[in-house]
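Field: sequence (string)
Field: structure_tokens (string)

Example rows 1 and 2, in order.
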Amino acid sequence: MRRQAPWTGCLTIGSRRGLVRPLDPGIQSCYNRRMNSDWEEFRERPATGQRKTTPSVSILRSGKMGLNRAAFDLLGRPGAIVFAYDRARCAIGLRAATLGEPGAYTVNQRGSWSSWRVSGAAFLRRFSIEVGDKPSSLDARLEGDFLVIDLPGGETS
């Protein structure tokens, strides 16, 4: 029985543990399992599992906001936050709050990941803040009690 192994450019002959031979004589790694020493590394983008160490907030199309560990730590690792908006600067502010505080939204950790989520859909609708189709990760900084996120197109201070 001959079939092409879908994950390689090799031809599998026989059972699952059968003999594997390259379809193209130039493909040696399938036949003799030797590694080529002419690797060219791709370094244009960090790996997906790599942590960002600067504070940032992601705004998803659903209206949820994701805080990375650095942003969550800057706020003092709160159980809830209060949203604020500065129209003149076109900036969102997040302030640490207690769970019973009026207007406070609960912050939830996303599984065992180093990110935390809060639902900001009502806040975004109230201030007519447009969210694109793709998630946007925006840098954040601490100003007084607020973690400030400058929105694209607004003035930064």
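Row 2 begins here:
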Amino acid sequence: MPHDRDPMGTDMTQGSGYTPASEMGTRQPEEAGRTATQVQEKAKEVGAMAQERLDEATTRAGEGMQHAAESVREMAQERGGVAAEVGAKAADAMEGTATYLRDADTQKMMDDIERYVRQHPVQAVAGAIVGGFILGRLLS
């Protein structure tokens, strides 16, 4: 079987994995298209799962924030006077944040963040720097 190998010694028999050049031109684009479609579908699945988990996490964070607001309000009421007023305002702000976290989905939050950054770029950068610093301190 001297004709089963090309001049470079490549096995050209059927089942060897060899694809004649005449067939390569038509197969590769089809296979690449199928692979690209599969990758896109998998990316959509992963993205949907990540968004679902993030929505669940923000809902839990909102519930935790609500409990914290209730605790702040109770402690403030026990102290009375100016502390009660300041505590009530802080608790109100915390409850507003809790409601937002529980009720808003991930896409709405991203839209709100984007809108805020466009309207207040300096404050957004300053907040990112402070947040990064605090996160770095917590993780180190």
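free_text_note (row 2): The mean pLDDT is 83.
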